[in-house]
Amino acid sequence: MAADKKIAAITARLVERSKPSREAYLGRVREAATKGPHRSVLSCGNLAHGFAVCSPSEKGMLAGDRVPNLGIITAYNDMLSAHQPYETYPALIREAAREAGGVAQVAGGVPAMCDGVTQGQPGMELSLFSRDLIAMAAGVGLSHNMFDSVVYLGVCDKIVPGLAIAALTFGHLPAVFVPAGPMTSGLPNDEKARVRQLFAEGKVGRDALLEAESKSYHGPGTCTFYGTANSNQMLMEIMGFHMPGSSFINPGTPLRDALTKEAAKRALAITAMGNEFTPAGEMIDERSVVNGVIGLHATGGSTNHTLHLVAIARAAGIHLTWQDISDLSDAIPLLARVYPNGLADVNHFNAAGGIGFLIRELLKQGLLHDDVRTVFGQGLSAYTVEAGLGENGAVVRKPVPAQSGDAKVLSTIEAPFQASGGLKMLKGNIGTGVIKISAVKPERHVIEAPAKVFHDQAGLNNAFKNGELTGDFIAVVRFQGPKANGMPELHKLTTVLGILQDRGQRVALLTDGRMSGASGKVPAAIHVTPEAKDGGAIAKIRDGDMIRLDATKGTIDVLMDADIFDARIAIEADLSDNEYGMGRELFAIFRQNAGAADQGGSVLF
């Protein structure tokens, strides 16, 4: 089915806007691809270093450019639950490569940090910049020019976007992303949130809180709520980087291992040495990017991807804007309810039909581009399946069921949970920002209240503890942008503001920082740009100023005479405490060169 007219129109303007940079990018990709198997350009000394540890038979194969060599970029570490499963993947991939008549080598490792560990800590100020660092680290691994195709092993928040940027930077090489899957379901997310609120109110102790958290995050795999990590997996599948049906299969299962081996064999099958050459830079185009945004809206995904998708697209010469994202939100219905946008977790979502069901429903009304290239070698309709194990242990696929396994979790296109997607762009005299409204009740889509201004989240939390946050208000937490302190997530504010809202106060958040895919029931205008450090209007707000946040109309304004507000001097803040400790001094050059949030908050583009 042809794409819906609105989707086609938004895609067409993206194509037109991107034409100069996209054409230049494709020219570079095609020039690199014409050079053939890249080991042929290496000197004998170069090549000897590159395959020194290989077996004699592998050396013979690689010496003559007779077989493809598969590079592995891995984000493995064994502290983080989502990445611990990757410890065994290189052995599986090497075995699969041998079975397919190829060779596989670990090209390099990239850092993988967890926002869940660093929330509210100094290390959180490295988080966003780690995305660009991951892209650079992957680039170092691939710069040896030894590989004909690449598999990328990464799951969580900044890791997958960083790897995607690397995959598109090395766009002449095919790229297959290999997920590790979510941990099995533990303590329900709403119960975890309830205990957090009780702890914040002093009604339970740290021991009860730690017990609840440990029951929630209890084993290998991603966290089970629908935050950035699981939004990443949805994106990689709906954009065609995953094998169909692979995103949400639990770690340590025979199916997970079979999918990993299948992905490795497919990565070898699509090199320039075969008949299905699928370079990542040509595979991913404007339609693929639009499909990613649509998937984000239809599932109520992470707000972080208003940064990451912009940066990923830029790596392929595509100029995605927040306006594109907002306009697509107006055209895409919400089909999934996964925490914090509902009570279910991603395991429940997958059991209800998962991404395959979602794609099929969107394709019914032309709300996705089906005519895209994917690593599977077919259009997106090939992803309307669920994966299982055959009798011989290989992956088999069958069409997803006609009906959702749980209509409260995953609905049809005929009966969406709401008519529009979960993200909206906000504009006004404060600047431009983003709000996630899929989990916010409609009666809270408009908040008009006086400002309470803070320069960090600790200030707001201390005001809460001191009983100072009374009445209705909009919390303004500024100097949290990329240039100020690396744009940390302010997830610690979710509990406090949620408590106040539950008490009957009308509250909201306005910040140039991030709130993540875990942002929930409290209206939050985030990623406000220009940021305070750049002299943005958010730095002019004073305590008591009346602010109106209107998610229905898409506006954020200080309610005062324009001349008076414009004449105000922007406040400056002492940010010296953000410059040192936990590695922050190493990232000074990133803060100094970071782009604006609506440009991806990147130092690369």
Strand content: 5-15%
Major sheet size, sense and barrel closure: 8 strands, mixed
- Work out the number of β strands: 14
* Main sheet: strand order: 7-8-12-11-10-9-13-14
Structural class: alpha/beta
Give the tally of structural domains. 2
Considering DSSP H and I runs of 4 or more, what fraction of the residues is helical? 25-40%
Computed Rg: 24 Å
Distance between the termini: 35 Å
| Uncertain stretches of 5 or more adjacent residues | none
Mean pLDDT: 93
Q: If helices are DSSP runs of H or I spanning 4 or more residues, what is the number of helices?
A: 22
Shape by Cα distribution: globular
GO cellular component, one term: cytosol
InterPro entries: 6-phosphgluc_deHydtase (IPR004786), Dihydro-acid_dehy_C (IPR042096), DiOHA_6PGluconate_deHydtase_CS (IPR020558), ILV_EDD_C (IPR056740), ILV_EDD_N (IPR000581), IlvD/EDD_N (IPR037237)
Binding site for [4Fe-4S] cluster: 156, 223
Enzyme class: lyase
List the defining traits of the structure above.
605 residues; Glucose Oxidase, domain 1; four-stranded parallel sheet; 14 strands; 13% strand; metal ion binding
Characterization of this structure:
There is one protein chain. The protein is built from 22 helices and 14 strands. It has 605 residues and is α/β, with parallel strands linked by helices. The chain has an eight-stranded mixed β-sheet. A four-stranded parallel β-sheet has the order 2-1-3-4, with helices on both faces. Strands 5-6 form a two-stranded antiparallel ribbon. Strand 13 and strand 14 (555-558) form a beta hairpin. Helix 7 packs parallel to helix 14 and helix 8 (189-200) runs antiparallel to helix 9. It is globular. The mean pLDDT is 93.
